[in-house]
Amino acid sequence: MATAALGSSFSVIFFTVLLAIIPTTAWIGFYYWQYRKLSIPVLVSLGVFVMGGIAVLASILIQRPLLDMLSPITREFLEGRLVQLTGTEAVRSFVLAFLIAAPSEEITKMIGVMFLAYPNDKKFNRYFDGIVMGILAGLGFALIENIVYFYPLVVSGQYPVLIGSFILRFLVSTTAHSLYSGVAGFYIAKGKLTPKKRGLYFSLAFFIPVIMHGLFNFFLFTRIVYYALALVGVALFLMLRVTKNRKNLEVRKRRGKLVKETFFRDQAFEDQRNTAIAFFRRDQGENIADYKQGEVYNICPVCYVENKTKSNFCVNCHEDLIKKT
Fold it and tell me: Quick one: three-class SS letters along the chain?
């Protein structure tokens, strides 16, 4: 009997973890397919992901004292155990969404980014790096949260509800967590690489994700699901646009010095670089015009670093090295 119970418990846990991993793995694959230019070390990236998962427990430890600080009647009201009066549902949802859930979760998700990725000056040197680290933290958080949501449904055998919850968390909640954290990571990177405006960008790294997360939760709590879906869709579209912006892929730090925002527009630098590369190409017999579409450049056309490994991306500035036209 004990062995059978143990086997049954293991099956439930395994099935729950498997269900929780599928959405996270799918979104990691999607983001990797979109952004194959990661410069942060794999171990650091894995650490940020794990810390994102641990943030679920940290956020619970923060939220519970906040509820305990409230009077018993107010706490019961917020937890939805009292009869709702006209307009009170919106107030309850607003307090839970904007003042308790969103701030605690967004702050704890960024702990891994700040302590593991942020100090790495050699690798954490682009706005893009902050976005990817934030996304990984959000996906780690979503993984553990999915387990928390799926486990009771698996144990109780509520499989129709489980299927609906799985689809909703796959397409909406997991995506939303990654997007909020990606926005936070973006502004953390801007703050790191723009010291004069660090306070402003760090403030935006907190308030913008909290507002987005709060709106999402508020729409769900008040059962305006279509608005929540629209919010996630717009946020995903904007995130893809931001990460495709070449400016966010530029290396902002070299040898400990910040690169100017006009790095690729500085005519004096362009002239100096073009002169230097002209001699290099003359010696190497290199001419970009000789390449055919689909071939990989031997020299990066942006920073002119030699592509010794025949990679599709430059190891220095991460420019796409495949001949397009």
Answer: CHHHHHHHHHHHHHHHHHHHHHHHHHHHHHHHHHCCCCCCCHHHHHHHHHHHHHHHHHHHHHHHHHHHCCCHHHHHHHCCCCCCCCCHHHHHHHHHHHHHHHHHHHHHHCHHHHHHHCCCCCCCCCHHHHHHHHHHHHHHHHHHHHHHHHHHHHHHCCHHHHHHHHHHHHHHHHHHHHHHHHHHHHHHHHHHHCHHHHHHHHHHHHHHHHHHHHHHHHHHHCCCHHHHHHHHHHHHHHHHHHHHCHHHHCCCEECCEECCCCCCCCHHHHHHHHHHHHHHHHHHCCCHHHCCCCCECCECCCCCCECCCCCCECCCCCCECECCC
Q: Sorting pLDDT into bands at 50, 70 and 90, what band is 208?
A: very high
Is residue 319 predicted with pLDDT exceeding 60?
yes
Averaged pLDDT, 223-234: 85
- Residues 18-55: tens digit of each pLDDT: 889 998 998 888 877 766 566 678 888 899 999 999 99
